[in-house]
Design a protein that fits this description.
Formation of pseudouridine at positions 38, 39 and 40 in the anticodon stem and loop of transfer RNAs. By secondary structure, the protein is α+β, with helices and mostly antiparallel strands. It has helices spanning about 25-40, 70-80, 135-145, 195-205, 215-220, 245-250; strands at about 1-10, 45, 55-65, 85-95, 105-115, 130, 150, 165-180, 180-190, 235-245. Helix content is about 25%, strand content about 30%. The two termini are about 30 Å apart.
């Protein structure tokens, strides 16, 4: 049987989603360890995306094939009983055998939070980048418009040895400002290594007038990571949702 699992986690103390041989501190590794205990044999899961160390998720998606049929509710209860307190499973459902959490995904929605006030957000410090300055929102929005669409985002990829295509489509970059905070929502068909964090750093440099709007357009042409902005901290980034149906309909529900 194939099961779809919706997972939420605080990524602060983990080395990212993907299982690694050098450490047990990964989200995938923790979930697989519990499922393997439940089934009495080694179990491997597939995740929709590899969130980096320190990045959070409200709705990461995974799927797992189990040899024996198990009540999805029992799987959910077992996982939540034995997973660490900073990882939780919100839903488990049976899905068609060919469903694959990563290959069937049509897009992802990420949210990046930036604190702009003078006073630190003490109780939210794990989930927000304490920038401490107020950038020009209009300039940031204009830069976001330049970056929206289908482009080669090699300048925004931390993996300099990337051999696969670095062309991606960003459907929208939505910036909203509230008291002491800027929230940036990115919706796209996929994102490169550190791409959103580099995009955020670049937008902030534009907002602080350390970078011109024309330079943003040039980044899409030069395809050089060294020319782009700084990499914003991982803690401000959260995977909000993985999309499996028409993007416009999904994004309207947020």
């Amino acid at each position: 049987m194939n099961y779809k699992i919706l997972v939420q986690y605080d990524g602060t103390r983990y080395e990212g989603w993907q299982r690694q041989e050098r450490t047990e501190s990964t989200i995938q590794g923790k979930i697989e360890a519990v499922l393997s205990k439940m089934c009495g044999e080694e179990v491997q899961i597939q995740g929709a995306g590899r969130t980096d160390a320190g990045v959070h998720a409200k709705e990461q998606v995974a799927n797992v094939h189990l040899k024996e049929q198990v009540d999805p509710q029992e799987v959910k209860q077992y996982l939540n009983r034995y997973l660490p307190e900073d990882i939780a499973v919100s839903e488990v459902t049976e899905v068609p055998e060919r469903f694959h959490s990563r290959l069937n995904a049509t897009g992802k929605i990420y949210v990046y939070r930036i604190a702009t006030g003078e006073v630190k957000k003490v109780f939210e410090r794990r989930y927000i980048y304490d920038f401490g300055e107020k950038p020009d929102m209009e300039l940031m929005c204009r830069a976001a418009e330049i970056l929206t669409g289908t482009h080669d985002f090699k300048s925004f990829c931390a993996n300099r040895r990337m051999k696969k295509s670095t062309v991606r489509t960003i459907y929208s970059i939505d910036l909203k400002e509230k008291e002491g905070e800027i929230v940036i929502t990115y919706t796209g068909n996929g994102f490169l290594h550190h791409m959103i964090r580099i995009l955020t750093g670049t937008l902030l440099e534009v907002g602080m007038k350390k970078r011109s709007l024309s330079s943003v357009a040039e980044l899409l042409e030069v395809r050089d990571r060294e020319k782009a902005g700084f990499t914003a901290p991982a803690k401000g980034l959260t995977l909000e949702k993985v999309l499996y149906s028409p993007l416009q309909k999904e994004s309207e529900t947020l």
